[in-house]
Specification:
143 residues
């Protein structure tokens, strides 16, 4: 005894038409396109271009002048220990530093609790006015 499993409408011995699309060529084409895309992507450089000095620097003949600029927790700015009254006075002092032929070093020492926008404003003002020797001091308090 045999049992016929399948659709009853098809004649015995005739193959049924295939209703599915062959996906293998489509997948092959997609893989080739992905490989071509990967090959043609330009190489990404994760570097920052810096203008580094060439050679050895000349020995220091004199100690550099240092200006200490403290930013207190409430946004008060101290220039060598003396309170700067407002933003215009700070910018006048920074312009005076930038105008000197041999600029003194500006050591910026922000308090741990001061808002970032105050320190960023001081640094932006110094950069805008042409101060080139700026250093952050006291970073160990932030660790």
């Amino acid at each position: 005894m045999s049992m016929n499993v399948g659709s009853g409408g098809a004649k015995s011995g005739e193959p049924e038409p295939m209703m599915e699309m062959n996906m293998t060529p489509l997948i092959d084409v997609m893989l080739v396109l992905i490989i071509m895309l990967i090959i043609t992507i330009p190489k990404q450089n994760h570097s920052v271009n810096l203008n580094m000095p060439v050679g050895t620097p000349p020995p220091l003949t004199q100690e550099p002048v240092v200006v200490t600029l403290d930013v207190d927790f409430d946004g008060t700015i101290l220039w060598d220990g003396q309170v700067v009254s407002d933003r215009a006075a700070l910018e006048a002092k920074l312009a005076g530093v930038a105008a000197q032929p041999e600029q003194p070093e500006l050591h910026l020492r922000p308090n741990k609790l001061v808002a970032y926008k105050v320190v960023a404003g001081v640094m932006a003002a110094a950069q805008r006015l042409g101060v080139t020797k700026i250093g952050l001091v006291g970073n160990e308090q932030f660790q």
